[in-house]
Write a structure and sequence with these properties.
By secondary structure, the protein is an all-beta fold. Helices cover 1% and strands 46% of the residues. The chain has a single domain, classed as Neuraminidase (6 Propeller), CATH 2.120.10. The chain contains one helix and 29 strands. The N terminus and C terminus are likely disordered.
Length: 396
């Protein structure tokens, strides 16, 4: 199932609107009442045999208990248009059982590290009871974990923990559901949300870390953000655009944005708004970035789209261009990227595939017969943003 959406913009001010087209693909559909495919996120990497690059997608089974996820699965295809391999469970990345506790890594984001020619998968180490409840039963129960994929050998390491500095403030410390970056010198910029426990308000920061091809090490961290509203701050994502760094952060009542000249020292947070000053309406879920030399884009969900029937208004998925000087979403550029049909899109990924194409990936949540009656089928979507594609009429 493929759809096309053509979008053209014409410059009306020093802010330049960027043209693009969208090709929406449905990779598969799954709704058996036992699990849904969730958290699909993709990264491209050079093919060791010199043929066309490949894309690897990480994904997990949502086991239909709140935030209860399986071990990690992967899919691959030739970039950008090959056939997908079926989801394959990776034994090295599966659950680890310790007594009556299952230890898994969820909320994973993969990315290529060109300096070491390795692919990193970074997410949250979580302890589950056998009933699927997240536990905080031992010190530092909720931490950040990573695994390393070597394309030359086609092998994964097991999960490793990213060790944080001592102190109770890092008892909960996750770089999870977060877009992260690689600096030109190979260092990583990893957005974190953290705190003494999962019952206290979370803070957010960006950690600079080293990676030698095997081990990630914490080096230093930047501005510490606090927001004394509901649960605080969570699931930050970072992007670089024209020599500046931009951070978007989740809160239960609104999304927030900040910028930095070095990726670590950030300005105070601002609430996301449209360029007319009105609230963006995105709340209690992730926002992610797409960055191009000629434009910066935000992917998000929001209220006010005839979507009150969707939990937390988590569908449809929107794309809009950001004015990087004013930290606002330019309303006239907003388009529906993936339409809603009853299911929610709260846990998605976004990133570049090559210089001509970026992807947004999401699994469709199906939680009731009402969702199904509206058309939800547990789809796994890839929205391919084609920056240099010819026009095509119609919508996805």
């Amino acid at each position: 199932m493929v759809g096309y959406l053509a979008i053209f913009f014409f410059a009306q001010s020093p802010f330049r609107e960027v043209p693009y087209a969208v090709k929406l693909e449905t990779i598969m559909e799954h709704d058996d009442g036992k699990f849904l495919w969730y958290h699909p996120r993709a990264a491209s990497f050079p093919n060791p045999d010199g043929n066309s690059p490949r894309v690897l997608m990480t994904l997990q089974k949502h086991l239909r208990t709140s935030d209860h996820y399986s071990g990690l699965f992967t899919m691959e295809r030739a970039a950008p248009g090959g056939e997908w391999s079926p989801p394959a469970e990776r034994p090295e990345l599966a659950w680890r059982s310790v007594g009556e506790v299952d230890v898994a890594v969820a909320d994973v984001t993969p990315g290529w590290h060109p300096q070491t020619k390795k692919l990193l998968a970074i997410g949250a180490e979580v302890r589950y009871s056998r009933a699927g409840k997240q536990l905080e039963d031992v010190p530092r129960s909720n931490q950040t974990a990573y695994a390393v994929y070597d394309p030359a050998k086609r092998t994964w390491s097991g999960w490793k923990r990213l060790e944080m500095p001592p102190g109770s403030e890092f008892n909960f410390a996750r770089s999870a559901c977060s877009q992260w970056l690689v600096r030109p010198d190979g260092k990583l910029l990893l957005p974190f949300y953290f705190g003494p426990s999962q019952t206290e308000r979370f803070r957010a920061t960006v950690v600079e870390a080293s990676f030698d091809g095997e081990t990630i090490k914490h080096l230093r961290q930047g501005t510490e953000f606090r927001l004394e509203v509901v649960r605080g701050l969570a699931e930050p994502s970072i992007a670089e655009h024209r020599g500046r760094w931009f951070l978007t952060v989740r809160n239960d009542l609104a999304g927030y944005v900040s910028s930095s000249a070095d990726g670590l020292a950030f300005a105070p947070l601002r609430k996301w708004t449209f360029d007319d000053g009105k609230d963006l309406g995105s709340y209690n879920t992730q926002q992610h970035w797409l960055s191009r030399p000629d434009g910066l884009f935000l992917i998000y969900t929001r209220r006010g789209a005839n979507n009150d029937h969707i939990i937390r208004h988590r569908a449809p998925l929107f794309i809009a261009q950001v004015d990087p000087e004013k930290f606002r979403v330019v309303r006239r550029t907003e388009r529906i990227l993936i339409p809603e049909r009853g299911g929610e899109f709260g846990n998605f990924g976004a990133g570049p595939i090559d210089e001509n194409e970026s992807w947004v990936t999401v699994g469709e949540g199906v939680w009731s017969d009402s969702d199904r009656k509206r058309g939800a089928r547990g789809a796994l979507y890839v929205a391919r943003i084609l920056w240099n594609a010819p026009a095509a009429k119609g919508g996805p």
